[in-house]
Write a structure and sequence with these properties.
The protein is an all-alpha fold. It has helices at about 5-10, 15-20, 25-30, 35-40, 45-70, 75-105, 110-115, 120-135, 135-160, 170-175, 180-195, 200-225.
Length: about 230
């Protein structure tokens, strides 16, 4: 089951409505140069190095967001379920980063010295602020796009004919992997559970942060393609 099929099967749910709401954003994400060039193996190495460094910085903060969201879950069952899905995603991504940092000659010192780009800084601070100051349901909606959009993109790229010698094949394999998909499906399900218990005002907030985080996903990839740096 791919991410698009999953959204179809969720018809009538909060997450189905949220996925429909970001259709225009997804259309722009699917044609981003970074992703199309990664897919066919022609992405310039310096762009990928910039991207993977920024992604390592992002993941450090995202992991903390997941921990905060888990702590706000209303019962132990949801705490454990959420932590399990989050652990799957983080373990998969950390393994991917370790391989690419070696492959592209990025040292641990490079990672330590790296600074977040404006887009990375804005996105991670949005997520942290939402996780700290919002309800469980709203915070969950903010962290969902990262799971779901990466799953969707990974599945879409994986379905294309493989390019022999593609230096980025491990990235494609990671986000098209059943283990990552399972984690994403869990978070989607938890978000729908939370939405059913939420008030109308809270559901409106859930939708707002879902859309904003999806826009930040586009910004993150676009900024990496442009080798975004602080202008002053």
């Amino acid at each position: 089951m791919d991410a698009s099929t999953q959204s179809t099967e969720l018809t009538g749910s909060f997450t189905a409505a949220a996925w429909d709401r970001i259709a225009a954003v997804m259309a722009e994400i699917e044609v981003l140069p970074l992703l199309t060039r990664l897919s066919d193996g022609t992405l310039p190495p310096e762009v990928f190095r910039h991207y993977i460094l920024q992604d390592a910085l992002y993941l450090k903060h995202y992991a903390r967001c997941l921990a905060i969201v888990a702590a706000k879950a209303p019962d132990n069952a949801q705490v454990l379920r959420f932590l399990g899905s989050a652990q799957k995603a983080i373990t998969v991504e950390q393994g991917l980063h370790a391989g690419f940092l070696t492959q592209f000659g990025i040292s641990s010192e490079d990672v330590s010295a790296a600074e977040p780009s404006p887009s990375c800084f804005a996105y991670t601070n949005f997520l942290l602020a939402t996780a700290y100051h919002s309800s469980y349901a709203v915070a969950l909606s903010a962290i969902l796009p990262c799971f779901w959009i990466y799953w969707h993109v990974g599945e879409a790229i994986k379905s294309r004919p493989a390019i022999e010698g593609n230096a980025f094949q491990a990235w494609i394999n990671t986000y098209g992997d059943p283990q990552f998909a399972a984690g994403a499906r869990e978070v989607i399900a938890l978000t729908d559970i939370a939405a059913r218990a939420a008030s109308p005002a809270e559901r409106s907030q859930m939708m707002d942060v879902f859309v904003r985080a999806s826009q930040y996903e586009w910004m993150f990839w676009d900024s990496a393609w442009r080798l975004e740096a602080w202008p002053v």
